[in-house]
Amino acid sequence: GLRSIPSLSQFRRLRYLWINNNKIQDLTFLIKNYYLTELYLDNNKLTDISGALKHLCSLQILFLHNNELKKLGKTVKELKGMISLQTLNLFQNPLAYDPDYRLYVIYFLPSVQLLDRKLVTQRERDSALHLYNPKRAWVMQSIAFGKRVDTSLGTTVRSSRCTQPARRPIMPSVVLLCSFCRLPFEDPEDAVLVRAMRRSLMEFSSVDWNKVTTCQERRLENKAEEPLEKLTVQFR
Predict the structure, then answer these.
(1) Which of 28, 82, 91, 94 could bridge across to 70 with cysteines, CB 3.0–4.6 Å?
(2) Which parts of the chain span the membrane according to its record (predicted)?
């Protein structure tokens, strides 16, 4: 039945706090508890959490279900700084009745893995990206390993088995450099391909050190050392 709680600033190292099943409306008593990792505020009378929780960057579990939170955007904005937040409950709040509530939370709080007792799936993350950032979703599905894939907005990326083999770009016989035409290729897709092929290379090499003889072994065995087997992989 608690309606208010005095400041907990003297407990600077406080990590776990259960104050659920009360009638709390104000959270200013948490202003100094930066080390909190689990906070249980469910079943209270909270109507707004603005300015009360954004400093809790270490928070991993937050229960806010069965309160009176109404503004979805304002509530999610308060939680954006919680980069470690993995478990979040917001159900049984008025904001949870928004038709796009779940996808909105998933998109703007990407660290959350368990939302309202339900695991966040990759399909939901893709749907949230298409809904709230369609341009980025289209770019991500149209670029594969530095090469542009022939796809249109709103379609799925085809399997690599179905993609056409890379063709050699055709250089135009005459390049027009007028104010309205500055493309050095007849087909803009060729320009994308050439730019991708000119990217710098990253090279990674690895050796099985278990097969490399030590200095002591070389002195004792007194035989020619076999060449090392080195695996080198290049990425463009």
Answers:
(1) 94
(2) none
